[in-house]
Amino acid sequence: MATNGHRLLALVVIAVLVTLFPCLVQGQGLRTEVYSPRLIRVGPPGASQVVADLCVSGQCLVTLDPVVTAAQFQEALARRGGRILAAFPRLRTFLVSLPEGTSVRQGVAQWSAEPGVAAAGPNSFRYRAAPPNDPLYGQQYQWPRIAAPDAWDIQRGSPQTVVAIIDSGIQLNHEDLQAKIWRNAGEVAGNGVDDDRNGFIDDTVGWDFLDNDNDPAPHPTSGQVEATHGTHVAGLVGAATNNGVGVAGHDWACRLMVIRSLSEAGVGTDVAILGGIDYALAMGAQVINLSLGGPYSSVYDVPMQNARSRGCVVVAAAGNENSMFTDDPSSWVTPVCNDGPNPTVDNLVLGVAATDANDRKAWFSNYDGSSTKTFVDVSAPGDQVLSCLIFDPANGFNTAYGEMSGTSMACPIVAGLCA
User: Fold this and answer.
1) What is the DSSP string of 36-57?
2) Strand runs (DSSP E) across 253-377, as ranges?
3) What is the pTM of this model?
4) Residues 324-349: pLDDT tens digits?
5) Which residues are identified as catalytic?
6) Rounded to an integer, what distance in angstroms lies between the CA atom of residue 8 and that of residue 230?
7) Closest CA to 413 of 247, 199, 193, 244
């Protein structure tokens, strides 16, 4: 068996061997073939096209086990009638040629069965994921600031992921949110029966823990600006994205569970908030967004522990008082500081501070100076971020989109990332 030094030397030797052969993968005019019967969709809605699953003919990508030497690989190449076309030694991966008349599927199967080969696959075609076509996306500085477009090339979320927005309610018919609202599959709408026997009648999209009814949408009157808080938060987590409308959300596919625990004035009791947390856990939310805060209370410790035990991530805003959390409990707030009773061990809440467009601490954001806890775990853009607003001209809400500031905005950006 080769030592680590010998393995590195072997990979360097293989890389040098590449210079002995002309490269066949430069420029245009590559021969292609269909790798599988699968068809894939490329491009944004309205301008997308369906194309075959294509790869470059006569080539195969081969990744070697760490113990394979240059001599062993060269022996396998000679036996397979191949040569090295490109090398990535640090990845132990090489592009090799296939004999004339060998399909890529055949070549992949042959190399996959070769001793010392960890993986083999086609040199497939990949397609750039275009920026979202939402018309206001260019005004949302937060997404490129946190490299969200790069992440969207890899993962955009799943409709099986449910994020509970415990807030002032969400405008259910908002053009950029209505398609993303969670639906309780166990409940029949409007029949006045608790079909799923969870203690809530006709809770088809969530629950209102202030009015104790099944309509968790806000009901603002003119001038109640805080009423749009929950709608703005929801848009940052998961506004419908790449739909040619409005703004982009962080998670393109998740579902938004609507829980109203704050009034149109932005105020709610512990009972309403704890009721919302309990409901979210009972109904299977994987992420809970808490863009709220107030005096510290240990009453929230057990709910946070229960969320963790159920595999649910709780994301909480750090607060907007420009104050520092210390080891003194008098400096703490709830729920961001309800990390658990064991210092340096528990970290039950993902606490979020706010930054501005230049990655500096937003002037209003609370921050962390504690030595035994990590109340603030991460920062995210929270200063003048664009998202959804309640659109209700009859009550003075005349625009469906606008900017808001606060750790309340940074919090759902992180909740969307968790989703």
Assistant:
1) EEEEEEESSTTT-EEEEEEEET
2) 255-260, 287-290, 294-295, 313-317, 324-325, 333-334, 349-355, 367-368
3) 0.75
4) 999 999 999 999 999 988 877 889 99
5) 167, 229, 408
6) 55
7) 247
